[in-house]
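Task: encode each sequence below as structure tokens.

Item 1
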Amino acid sequence: MIKNRTKKRVYLDYASTTPLDKRVKKAMDRFLDKDFGNAGSIYKEGMEAKKALGEARKKIAGVFKCKTEEIIFTSGGTESNNLAIIGVMNAIADLRGVNTRICADLKNFHIITTQIEHSSVLQCFKKLEKKGAQVSYIGVGQNGVVNPKDIENALRLNTVLVSVMYANNEIGTIQPIREISKIIKSHNLQTSKSVNLQTYKPCEKNSLGIFPQSGISQGKLRNLQTYFHSDASQAACYLDLNVERLGVDLMTIDGHKIYGPKGVGALFVKKGTTISKIMEGGEQEMDLRPGTEPIPLIVGLSEALVIADSEREKEFARLSKLRDYFYSQILKNLRIDTSGKKEKKIELNGEMENRLPNNLNIYVPGIDAEFAVIKLDEKGIACSAKSACLKDGSSYVVNALNLGKERGKQSLRFSLGRFTTKSEIDYAIKVLKTYFLVPKRII
């Protein structure tokens, strides 16, 4: 049992999860008890649920600037990422004849992602790699941003999927999604000119070294392009989600990252994208995600996204100012003792310019980050050392910056949110200053 725990609490881990906004809860309440029908039923209660489902889908499509039928509801960001990656690969493999008894591996497919993706993306790629797929894991610069040229250089004729997150969950760096999408579109255009659009016999290689099934139409073969997926779970509160402007084919959002309920998310799937469901059951969600739709959660997700979109610019400006103030106070008030050695400074992980407004991830030389999180918790400060999805070890995202082997174990993430105030930041500085990062002491 932890002793001397303070009653005052300052929550600075909004990147991990967000509290449910009261406005969102209000929108959900009637569907938790009064209007509890199944959207698949044809009587009154079911029709009310189906109407709510349609309205929620319309709201999200309005924010994404896409068609309503391009929105697929899931259980959250992890499932959306799995559906996007595994679903596309399964569908393409089926269409190209890989799943026949003769052609039973994925060795002719190439896919691309980055080294700093969320684990729900990276583990999908690693699973596909074990099945034989060729995978390129693109690194980032010391600023935490991927170079679009590195994506361009990695593209091949047989590249079928690229997945790059919109903004990183640990260091908050915003990735150049629009530039990458333009590169992929140009690549698709060049590829289509080099592909011989005829039908092939089963397991007969074409010019891409892949195995289309016999009788594939030219239209379907043209759809076998390089698709672009982006995990926008962290970006949804602060960045533009216009899918046409971003140039993505698939995009993930997660309810509990945007002051909505846990257990619900959505995946944008551009019309014409080759994809198949990854679970068996009913034909809900355009036959891509079986299971009874959780109407209260879906209504909450749509309401949360609409609120986030309407407050985006104002909240971006407010949190940027508050985050910059927090960092300036850290640099002004906190010093690290290195026991007579050359003094090391607290540094930012990732650049400040292309960064989410609520994210502050700092390298504090000499600390044990996980122990520091526990000690800060005793004083009422909730922060993190890495993604909440990872149990042990150092941050692979911070390590990917190539700034030192120990950096991933000596970094703290503070993430601000809708209910963070300046007085809370001042309290956090007071705790850090008087209890932790003081001269002649190493945490």
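Item 2
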Amino acid sequence: MTPLPETRKTFIQTPDDLMKIVTAFRQSRIILTGFELGVFTALGAQKKSSAAVAKKLRVNVRGLDRLMNALCALGLLRKKGPLFANSSFSARHLVDGKPGYLGGLAHTANLWNRWTTLTRAVAHGGTVLGSRAPKGNEKKRVRGFIAAMHQRASVQAAATVGLLDLSAVMRTLDIGAGSGAFSIALVRKKQDLQATVFDLPDVIPLTRAYVKRAGLPARFTFHPGDFNKDEFKPGYDLVFLSAIIHMNSVADNKRLLKKCAKALNRGGQLVIQDYVMNADRTKPAAGAFFAMNMLVGTEAGDTFTESEVRDWMKGAGLSRIRRVDTPYDSSLMIGRKK
């Protein structure tokens, strides 16, 4: 069989390239363990010995000392004599309560446990985790997930909203809104716009907190519910689905888009933001990698091609469907109700 020609620069061209990638998990795990244990927050703005930090965190002194040495090697801690301190980066971004705190790393730590099952998930064709998530950690898990999504969305929201035509938009519905970052950007973009956010009952209190922090509660309405089970009230000029369709099966997405279309006013827009794959599902690379994330974590979630999403939108009665690529790896699929 004739090998396929190389059509793009690959990530891996030498054995050294391969080894750098496959062993990078060590650095990742060191950072995540430091974050999970609370090492950076325990240090704060002080200089402390590993013994003092271990006592505060109630962990083994020797184990923590070796971890903190490794964090020094990564540049996240500094050490002078027996005393450790946060680097300037860690002091800004890894200490709980600081404005730049990267609390979303808690979600990354949760994903680590899922990804260790990838080999079995590929063989099985979907998640092998079932419903074995510890119930006692559910609130913490949800907070970590929403924080991670907020960090990502806050960076992208203004640029993404700038790609939309809001001239005839007065009322929006953000389904699976999470922190509400995109709706916050929408109401900031247009002064007379009113936003409704829809998410699970245990998420909505978190959404309220983010909206309150943004100083915009008067511009928002909050609806708890399950987007795969509940109907949406009608009367919206724009329905926004960001990072939602990758959670669902094809059948679930077809049903969801039909419900979204029913909620739109005539001429209203359905805006889907997600990874939109090319026909052979290899680009964008981030989308191909994310398909693995859905494989280990869901029964039927995936990243979908442009033609698939177009077909679902047409089936929901939408027309004038177009794709708009964002400055990030995601794309927008926009259709209007006839």
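Check on item 2: Residues 138-161 form the longest helix (24 residues). The chain has two domains: 15-96, 153-337.
End of task.
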